[in-house]
Amino acid sequence: MAFRLLPFQPVLGHMHCPVRGILGAASVEYQQVRGFLNNKHRERKFRNLRRMKIDSKVPLKYMDNYQRGVRDGYFQNIRNIKKLWREREVFTPCSNVLIDEFVPPENQGRAITEEIKKKWNDVGQFGKDKLAVRKIRTYESEFNLKVFQPEALEIYIKAHECLAANDLDKLSDYATEHARLAMLLNSSKRTIHWKFLQALEPPKVVQVRLFQLESQSDVFAQLTVRLLTQQVLAVYDRFGRLIYGSEILAKDVLEYAVFEKQLSNEYGTWKLHGKIIPSDRIRMAEQTFVAPREPPQESSSVMTESDANIKEEKVVATS
Known about the structure:
By secondary structure, this protein is α+β, with helices and mostly antiparallel strands. Helix content is 28%, strand content 24%. Strands 4, 5, 6, 7, 8 and 9 form a 6-stranded antiparallel beta sheet that branches. Strands 1-3-2 form a 3-stranded antiparallel beta sheet, with no helix packed on it. Helix 5 (145-164) runs antiparallel to helix 6. The longest helix is centred in the middle third of the chain and has 20 residues, at 145-164. The N and C termini lie far apart (125 Å).
């Protein structure tokens, strides 16, 4: 705060308060900041008495711990005390994106093991997967990819069975909020008949990723599992009309299911988080040929029984 010896002069944008002392009249400038609420009383006559109403000398142990001060009884006899902030707990059970989305090989409509081997043999991706698995084992010492692969198939089946049965309470145990929103988006006012028949190939983990959110305490892991299964799907509208699929026709389905788990949560479980559906195999153009000319058929004078019956019917119709 700067003191200057000058007469009292009102200046635009400033408020001068003259102070009388031994050296004469001094001016104290209070600059008003735009957007800041001035909580000073307009009457400065009894400001010293108003200052004494609130004890500003708060012990250090109560500065950051208001609840402790209330528990110890320090803040009971102080008036006009306010809690000027509002604290709300933020819980992030899952992420809303697929981190480093796995790109399936082009035109993979069926099982192509060579393309999967090529993906695993890539040095960069292979190193990322191994590093992510090593970090996951720092949270779960008994984690094993070979043990997780059949568990992933069970989670996949139970999540779709809950969706077909419209059991939303159980669906939250097998699917994250991100996946549940996508699953329920197109299933409203529809009846779904879904059945899992068999797994044509054992499930296989093709990618492992681990990432953190803004806070270092939220650590998530995402595993992409390749599933080649045989399923039956039939979807009916609210009037009972079949709009997709069939209940008697089984189809081979190739999907890449993404499973996520919050590793920082002690009671977290693996849940279905999303799907990556590869593009269908490009169908080759069918070859065309010129149809051969058929030799003209010779008319025979022999009449069969069917021809005779047709001729009699025509005669009866004309008569």
